[in-house]
Amino acid sequence: MRSRETGSVATSSEMCGADNPYGATTGTSSSSRNSSRRSALAKNPSASTPSSHTLPRPNELSMRAPGQASPPSEALLPTTGAYSSMRHEQAATTTTGDGGDDRVTPSSLPHHAFPKVSMPTPAATARDASHDVRDTVEYRAAWDLELWKAVQADRFRKQLARQKSAAFADLERSVKRREKEALAELAQRAQGVALREEAAKSVEAQLTARQGKLSEMEKDLRRMRQQLLDAQQRVEDEVRAQVRLANDTIAHRARLLEERVKAAEAQVKRADERQRQAQEDYLGLYEAFNRYRSQQLASAASDTNGFLNVSSTSAALSPALTPALQLEQLRAQWDAEHQLRLDRQEQLHKSEMAIVQERCRELEERNRRLTAALARRREQLRNMRGAGADTTLMASASPVPQLCVDSRKQTVAVPTSAVSVAAAATLSPPPPVMDALRRETVEQIVRELRRLESDRASLVGGSSGALCETDAVIVRMNDRMRHLQQQLASVRGTAATTAVVAVGGGEGD
């Protein structure tokens, strides 16, 4: 412990000797001071101070003289005025390490920076006058060390305060800078959020509009699907009615032909019966003539009158032979005429049978065409229902034209071409296609009119009176022909109106 205190005192004395500006006033050099300090400490170890602020006050110090025992009551040495003023000047002025001059007033130093000095009593002064401990080198070194420690501690406190204030200022500037940056970033983020909110609102408005359009498109699609289903049902009903009408017509014509055949067979039977009756009459007359002749020949052999009798007999027979010859001639003529009539009826029957068979083949072919058209139409409607979700078909969809609406009101069967035209007209095509569709409709109606006229003429002329103008089939055909003529007139009027409007629009442009 003594060696550690000795080393600390020596080091402190060296530092004090190096930093103390008043080292020259002690009257000795630093080396002699150190050697005398070590010898004094070796003799009196209690004179060393372990730490700052632990030295006793000058009026309380008591040190033994070298080589003497410590008396029970040792007087304190008074402090000289020159030494005290030197210590106060050294404590009042210090030089900073960075070259600046820091003025420290005694009032700015803490109360423990200066040891308290109390004036000794006269008795103590008289007692310790011969031994003043404050004049020793060790005391000076300790005092200088304590004063230097106090000055350095105050300087370190001021330097710490300056560094703390600078650090707080830097921290405040950093906090303010970060606050500005945070505010700027917050404003930028708020602006970005506002822009995103506006974009989201615009997108929401667009989505709302698109949702409304989508709902309208769905309504149009449902309506168009319903129209397609209605059109398909109407086409199927019309095709069924047409097939039923064709079957009824074929059955009616077959019945008419069967009746004609039966009538012809009855006429042939009656003619055969008349021919057989005529032949029986002829054979009866011929046998009566033969008997009469035999009787005359038998009577002529026994007659004695000779030539007169014979001549009278011939004169009597001649009136009887004349009706027989006339009857034979009439029979031969009737046979010829009857054979000619039979041949004529057979030819007419063959021709009528050929016509009926040809018409049956035509009706069968037409029935096959109607069946194929119905299958194709069903496939088209199925494809149109499958592609109904397409927006292009929805955009091009329009109300059913008046021509198809008028044709749907009819109960008469529509032909295959008219059915296909009516089914194709359920959707409104683009304007460039309307003219071609209109022309095709006119051609189809004209062909249908011609066909109906030819069928009507063949039915009325070839029925041999079985069908008349008041028959149900002829009346329905007349109504159909009249309706087709009205449709043709309406289509041509619509085309003329469209052309006039187009010309007027072109002139206005």
Automatic annotation (TrEMBL):
Residues 207-281, 346-380 form a coiled coil. Residues 29-39 have a biased composition (Low complexity). Residues 1-14, 45-54 have a biased composition (Polar residues). GO terms for biological process: regulation of cell cycle process. Keywords: Coiled coil. Residues 1-129 are annotated as: Disordered. This is Uncharacterized protein. It comes from Leptomonas seymouri.
